[in-house]
Amino acid sequence: MKIKRAIAFGVMLWVGIFAIISILMFTPSLQDKDFYQFLILWILLIPLVLLLAKWYFREDSPTTKKGFLLGIIGVLVGTVLDIAITVPLFVKSYSVFYSNVFMYIGIAEGILLATYAGFEFDATYTMESKKTEIPTKDEE
After folding, report:
1. Which of 7, 36, 57, 129 has the highest CB neighbour number within 10 Å of its CB?
2. Could you tell me which residues come within 8 angstroms of residue 100 by beta carbon, excluding any fewer than 6 positions away?
């Protein structure tokens, strides 16, 4: 596991989520409609996490375990950034921010998507590796 790269994954994921939520919060038809904002976020989280996981796994061989750990590290990095930036500057209340059930659904989705990415990319990675193996005399 490449920790610096995983932390960069978490930072980029946090920035992406922050940008999406910021846009949705100021969209006139979605103001004061938290569920719909989060529904759109949950949909956009799928390509965001998968693309960032693909970026991460370019430098590290994918496995399901690494995908799960990548999701956990992404959540931890996002939590640190939320504690340091989001809550003090924008929300002003830790209890309000961390009492939102929709946020926990998004966290679970992010971990599951990163785990799935490790699993799926592992299947693709190992299939390609098998194709490039040199045949032995028995196989010829």
Report:
1. 57
2. 34
Residue 108, CA distances (Å) to 69, 105, 113, 139 in order? 13, 5, 9, 45
pTM of the model: 0.85
Q: Check residue 121 and give left, alpha or beta (phi > 0: left; psi -120 to 50: alpha).
A: alpha
Contact status, residue 118 vs residue 53, Cβ threshold 8 Å: yes
Question: DSSP string covering 36-81, please?
Answer: HHHHHHHHHHHHHHHHHHHHHTTSS---HHHHHHHHHHHHHHHHHH
The span from the CA of 69 to the CA of 26, in Å, is 33
Amino acid at site 29: S
Q: State both tokens at 124.
A: 């693709």
The token duo for 139 is: 């196989």
What does the angle CA 117 – CA 122 – CA 126 come to, to the nearest 5 degrees? 160
pLDDT 10s digits, 96-129: 999 999 999 999 999 999 999 999 988 776 655 5
Q: Judge whether 21 and 38 are in contact, CB under 8 Å.
A: no
